[in-house]
Amino acid sequence: MNLETLIQQLSAIERNTLQALANGEWQSLSQLVEKTGLPKDSIRRSMEWLNEKKLVEAQGQTKTNLEFSVSGKKALENGLPEIRFLEWVKKNSPNHIETAKKNSGLSEKEFNIGLGWNKKHNFVSVVKGTLTATGLDEEQEFLEKIEERKNALYSFEQKKELNSGFETEFLQRGLLSKKIAVERKIRLNTQGTQTIPLLSKIKTRSYNIRDPVPELLVGKKQPYIQFLNQIRRRLTELGFVEMDSPLVTQEFYNFDVLFQPQNHPARSWTDTYQLKQPQKGKLPHPKIVKSIKVMHETGGVSASNGWQYAWEEEIAKRLMPAAHGTAHSARQLVKGIQMPGKYFSIARCYRPDVIDATHLSEFTQLDGFIVGKLNFRHLLGMLKQFALEFAGTKEVRFAPAYYPFTEPSCQLIVKHPKLGWMEVAGAGLFRPEMIENLGIKGQALAWGIGIDRLAMIRLGINDVRQLFSDDLAWLRKQPMVVP
Amino acid sequence: MPTLEMSKKDFEKLVGKKFASRKELEEALWKAKTELEELNNDSIKASLEDTNRPDLLSTEGIARELRYKLGLQKKIQAYKTKKSGITATIDPDLKNIRPKAAYAVAWNVKVSNEFLGQMIQLQEKICQTFGQKRKEVAIGVFDLDKVNGNVRYFAADPKTEFIPLEYKVKMSLDEILKEHPKGKEFACLLSGQKKYPLLVDSKNEVLSFPPIINSAGSGKVTEQTKNLFLDVTGFNQNKVNTALSIFCAALADRKATIGSVEIQYGTKKITTPSFEKKKIVFKKDLIETITGMQKNDSHWKKRFQESGFETTFKGNKIECYYSNLRQDILHGVDVIEDALISEGYNNIPLEEIKLSVIGNESPKSLFVDAIRDACIGMGLQEVLSFTLSSREKQETLVGLQKETFVEIANPTSLNTALFRKTIFPELLAFLAKNKHAVYPQHLFEVGKTLELDSKSDTGVLEKDMVCIVLSNRKTSFSEIKSFLQAICNAFQWHFSIQETNHPAFESGQTGLIQIEQKKGIIGVLNKATRDNFGLEIPVSILEIEL
Question: Would A217 be classed as within a structural domain?
Fold first, then answer.
C-alpha cells in the first residue's frame, strides 16, 4: 500500500496521535493522552493501529512506581502511628504495656513504631512493663517533625511527588511500596516521519472496511425456549388448544383420574416427589370425586369391574410436583372439554432422579389428547403425522407399549437420518373406565412426545443439562433456532 | 422396564421353533410385548414393555405367549395338578404381619445350571415388579425331600433361631434383620412388628423367614435337587395365588409335575395352585369402535386365539375365556389390544384425523413471550434455570431467615429441596458461574415462583415472574430503573416505587414496585450479598410479577 492510500485511511484519532508524535521522541500513553486530550482507550487502540500500519516503532520500558500500602493509607486517614501512640499514652498514663497494645487501636507494627520513636525521644518511658508519658518540652519540635512527614504523605497522594529525603524511611516503615510497571512507548519511524508533512494535504478518503470491529453483545431467547415456542406454534396450527400446566398438582389428577390404583407401585415414594408442605389440596365437585371413586372400586358405569379396593379421598388430596404431563390432560377432562377437540400442554415435570448427563429431576413433557369419534387407526395416523412434524421423518414403526391409563397403547419409533431407530412418542386410547365415568361420548387419543430428546437432537447437544445451560458464553454463541 | 436374559437355544426349545435371523426373532418378540435389546451368539437380552404382565416375566412366559402368537398353541395352555398330600396351616396371628400364603410342589424337576439361573430370574423379577420389592409378593423355593411332612406358617418370637442361607451358624430372627445382608435389605418390610412370620415343617425345622430369607437346610436348592416345595407370601390372596400359578406354569413348561397343597385358614380351606380359566364378556361392536376395522367374526376369532383367548361369539356378545396367569384383563379393550398386537400394529391401515377445530396458545404463554420480546429488545440474554432450588440459595445467601417455602418431602439432594420463591438468587448463582465471560452481563428469565397459599386448590400460589439482572462495573439504581420504566412503557403499565429494605440490597437503593395489583422489587445488590455469591462486579436487580 502506498503512503497516500495509507494516509487516506487514517482515522481522526490516528491523525491526532501522529501530530502529537511529530517531535520524534518516545512517548507514553499518558503523555499522548495529555497532549491530545483524547480518552485513554482511544489512544491505546490508536497506538496499536499505528504500530500495525508500520508508522511507528514501539518499546516497553520498565518504570518503578511508588504506591501507598495499606498501612500508608491508614496513616493518611488516621494520622501517623507515633503521634497516635503518644496521644493515647498521654491520655492513659500510666498503664501496663500489654493493656496499651490491646486498647490503643494500633496494629502490632504501628505500636512498635510508635513505641520506638517515643522512647527514642524520651517522651515515654517503660519501667517493668509500665508505660508512662514523661511530658518533655522537646515535644513541640518532635511534633513539627511529624507534621513534615504528614505533609509529605499528603503531597504524595495529591501530586504523586515525594520529597526524596523520606522515600527510604517510608519504604522501610512500610507506608509505601514499590511497584514495577512496564510502560509502552512509541515514536515515529521513517515512514511515520514522512507522513507528518502530508497529513494536512491528504484528507481521509475511506475507512478500511476490512478492519475488525468490536463484538456486539446481543440478547437472544434461550435456545430451548425458542425450540419449545416453535413446537407450541406448530401444534396450534394443527388445531391444538394449549392447557394450563401448574407445577404442583393433587394426586387426584396425576393418578386417580387416570385410573392408577392407590397401591400402584408408580405412586411410591421412590418414583415421584412428594411435598412436605403444603401436603393436601382440595378436590373438585363431590359428584366428580364420587365418579372417580366408583371407577376405581367397581368400574362405575363402565363395563369394567375396576380395581376392587376401597378408594380413599385423602390419598387423592395429597399434593405433588406434577410427575407427567398427562396430569394436565386429566385436569382438563375433569374441567370440561369441547367435542370434538384437540388439547396439548408443554409442562415442567418432576421426578426424583439424580441429575446427570441423561437425567434431570426437572424436565419438560409435551402431552395432549384428541377427542371425537376416533379409533386406533386414527391414533396410528396421528403418530405418523407427529413423526413428520416433530422428527422430520416418514420412516416409522409402531410397537406395543403399556401405560396404566391407555388401552390399546402404542409407541412410535422413528428412523432418524443419523441416529437410527429411536422411540419418540407414546400414545393410546384413554381407558373406557375413564372415558365413560367422566361422561365423554367418543374416544380420547392420548399422546406424549419425548420433547427433551428431540430438543437435544435439534440443538446438537449430548448432555441433557445443557437445555438449562448455565454457561453464558455458550448461550451467546448459539445460533438462532430456525424452524 | 424389566430386562430378561435368555439362552436362544433354551428359548427356541420352549417355543418349539427356531428363529433363523435376528429380524425374525425381533418381530416375534414384539408380539410378546418384548423388545430385543441384544443378541450375542446364544445370549438374548430383551426388555418387557408391559409392567402389567407378570406372566411374561420369564423365558417360559414369553415362549408361551409366542406359542399362541405363532399358532403353535391353539387352546389355552392347560396345567394339571396332583394332590401332594401336604397340608399347610396358617396362624391367624399373622393378620397384621403378613397374613396370606400359597404353596405348591413340583416333582421331577430337571435342575441344571441354566434352569437354576432362569428360576432365580423369574423369582427375582416377580418379587421386584409384581411383588413391589417383596412387599406384596415374596417367593421361597425349597428342596421338597428335606421338608418333613406338613408345614405351619405362624407369627414367631423374634428370638427364634435357625441357620439362614449363606451362613453356617444359627441366628435369631432379630439378628438376621440386623446382620444378614438380605435382612438389612428387607428389614423395612417388618418394621414395628413384635412377632415375625416363620414357616416350619412338622419337625419344627425352619424352612423360611418370609419375606427375608430361607434356611440353609431345605432352602438350599442345587443341581442335585429333584423335587421342589414352593412358598409365596403376601397380603392379598389373589396376588399371592397369581404369583404361585405363574411360577408353577413355568416349571410345568419345563416338564415338572405340579402338586397341590391344602391350606387351612382356621376353619376355611383352600387348595393351591389353581389353573382355572377366567371369563370376561364384552360387546362385539366394541371391536370396531376401538380398532376402526371391519372384519368378520372368524377373522377376530383367529386373532383372539393367537393371543391365548378362547372366544364364543353369540349375537353382539363375545364370551372370552383366558388363563388365570393373567391379571390384566379388566375390560373388553384389554382383550382387543392383544388382538391388535396379533394383527401386527404395522399391518393396520392408518387413517388421517379430520376434525375442524381451531387451536390456540394459552393467553399466559402469549403474554410471557411478549415479555421475552421486550427484554430481548433491551439487549438482555435469556436464561433458563430450574424451579427446584436449595434453602441456601433462596434464603441464607440473600440474607433471609425462617422463610416458608413449598418444600419437597423426599428430595434427591439439597439442591432440589424446595421450590424457588424468587428468581433473582438463581440468576446470581448464574452470574457466579460466568465470571470469566465478557461483561456487561445483562440477563433475564421469565418463569414461575411458588408460595404457600391456603386459598388455592393446591395450597400453592404459582406466580409468573420476570427477573432482570444487570452486572457491570457502573451499574446503578438509575440504570435498572430505566429498564423498569422501559418495560412498563412497552406494556402501558403505570408503576410506583416506595423505599423498602431487603437484606440483599443496598439500603437507600431498594424499592418496592407496585404495578396495579402486582408487586415487585428493584435495587442494587449490596456488597455482603455479592461476597456471598463470590461476585466482584456490581449487580442491579429487577423482579416483577406478571
Answer: no
Owning domain of residue A58: 3-62+181-199
Strands A420-430 and B161-162: unpaired
Q: Are residues A115 and A253 in the same domain?
A: no
The answer to whether residue B388 neighbours chain A at the CB level (below 8 Å) is yes
Q: Which residues contact A73 (CB under 8 A, 6 or more apart)?
A: none
Asked if the model's pLDDT at residue B434 lies above 90, the reply is yes
Per-window interface: B 395-414 vs A, CB < 8 A: 404-413
| Cα–Cα dist A470/A474, whole Å | 9
Q: Is residue A320 part of a domain?
A: yes
**pLDDT tens digits, one per residue of B190-226:** 999 999 999 999 999 999 999 999 999 999 988 889 9
Q: How far apart are CA B231 and CA B213, in angstroms?
A: 12
Residues A254 and A378 in one domain: yes
For A336, list phi and psi in degrees, rounded to 5: 125, 145
Q: Do B291 and A376 touch (CB under 8 A)?
A: yes
Q: Which residue of B has its CA nearest to A298?
A: B330
Whether this model's pTM surpasses 0.90 = no
Residues of B in contact with A242 (CB under 8 A): 359-362, 365
Using an 8 Å CB-CB cutoff, list chain A residues near B349.
377
Residues B433, B533: Cα–Cα separation, whole Å: 9
Q: Residue B256 belongs to a domain with what CATH number? A: 3.50.40.10
50-79 of B, contacting A, C-beta below 8 A: 50-53
Is A319 found in the same domain as A447?
yes
Model pLDDT for residues B63-102, shown as the tens digit of each residue: 999 999 999 999 999 999 999 999 999 999 999 999 999 9
Strands A95-96 and B257-265, bridge-based pairing: unpaired
The cell numbers describing A235, all together, are 401444534
Question: Which residues, in sequence order, are CB contacts of A382 under 8 Å at separation 6+?
Answer: A370, A427, A445, A447, B353
**A85 and A42, same structural domain?**
no
Closest CB to A380: pick one of B350, B359, B419. Answer: B350
Name residues 86-145 of chain B within 8 A of A (Cβ). 129, 132
Q: Which domain holds residue B526?
A: 363-545
- Decide which of A111, A139, A174 is a domain's last residue: A174
Residue A450 belongs to a domain with what CATH number? 3.30.930.10
Mean pLDDT estimate for chain B:
95
A74 shares a domain with A58: no
Q: Tell me, yes or no, if B376 comes closer than 8 A to chain A by beta carbon.
A: yes
On whether both A325 and A435 belong to a single domain, the answer is yes
CATH of the domain at A169: 1.10.10
Crossing angle for the helix pair B59-69 and B237-253, to the nearest 10 degrees: 80
The number of folded domains in chain A is 3
Residues in chain A with CB shorter than 8 Å from the CB of B361 are 232-233, 236, 242
pLDDT at B441: 97
- CATH number of the domain enclosing B293: 3.30.56.10
DSSP state of A464: G
Q: Would you call A209 an interface residue with chain B, using a CB distance cutoff of 8 Å? A: no
Q: Under an 8 A CB cutoff, do A305 and B355 touch?
A: no
**Would an 8 Å CB–CB cutoff place B435 in contact with chain A?**
no
Window 269-328 of B: residues touching A by CB (8 A cutoff) are 282-283, 288-293
A219, A242, A352 member nearest B376 (Cβ): A219
Where among B36, B69, B102 does a domain terminate?
A: B69
Query: Cβ B430–A472 below 8 Å, yes or no?
Result: yes
Q: What are phi and psi of B237, to 5 degrees?
A: -60, -40
Q: Considering only CB atoms, which chain A residues are within 8 Å of B410?
A: 269-270, 273-274, 352
Together in a domain, A256 and A403: yes
How many C-beta neighbours within 10 Å does residue A3 have? 13
Give the list of residues 6+ apart from residue B411 with CB closer than 8 angstroms, or none: A273, A352, B388, B417
ipTM of this complex: 0.91
